[in-house]
Amino acid sequence: MRVNEEYSSPYYPHIVDVFPSVVRKMWKKNKVLILDIRTPMEYEDHHIPGAVLVPMDYLDVLLHKIPHKEIAVFCEHGNRARYATYGMPDLWKGRKVYYVIGGMAGWMGMGYEVESGIDENGVKWQKWLEELTNS
Fold first, then answer.
1. Whole-angstrom distance, CA of residue 48 vs CA of residue 107
2. Strand order of the sheet with strand 33-36?
3. Which of 55, 81, 90, 127 has the fewest CB atoms within 10 Å, measured from its CB?
4. CA–CA distance from 104 to each of 9, 12, 20, 61, 74 (Å)?
């Protein structure tokens, strides 16, 4: 039996649906940036170590601040991440973006790494927003 680990729509070949296990393998090899699009309160409660927080409401104005070509988009259960990828496909032009099926709930359900608190990556989005407003 063959198990599909990823799926890409012919309409949006730069958006790929993957499971947390696939993202974790890429993350461990530093091949993908974890982008957390949840609220700051959710991020503070639990997030993947090294994940960069950019709340979904600010994604369209701040995504250009992230230089990575390959990005895995996480929310809590996958609903917001699906909207942020497939609902805004032009936002990701020139990048490969991974929609993570099941989001943080799927990641934690597998027993993968999480940490709590606000770190440097949890406040970058605020600094980027200030830079935009002050320029």
1. 9
2. 6-8, 15-18, 96-100, 70-74, 33-36, 52-53
3. 90
4. 23, 23, 8, 24, 7
**Residue owning tokens 């957390």:** 36
Q: Which residues pair with 47 in a beta bridge?
A: 115
Produce one character per residue of 50-87: b if its CB has 16 or more CB atoms within 10 Å, e if not. Answer: ebbbbbbebbeebbeebeeeebbbbbbebebbbebbbe
Contact 101, 17 (CB under 8 A): yes
pLDDT (tens, 9 = 90+) of the chain, 135 residues, equals: 555 566 777 788 999 999 999 999 999 999 999 999 999 999 999 999 999 999 999 999 999 999 888 999 999 999 999 999 999 999 998 999 999 999 999 999 999 999 999 999 999 999 999 999 887
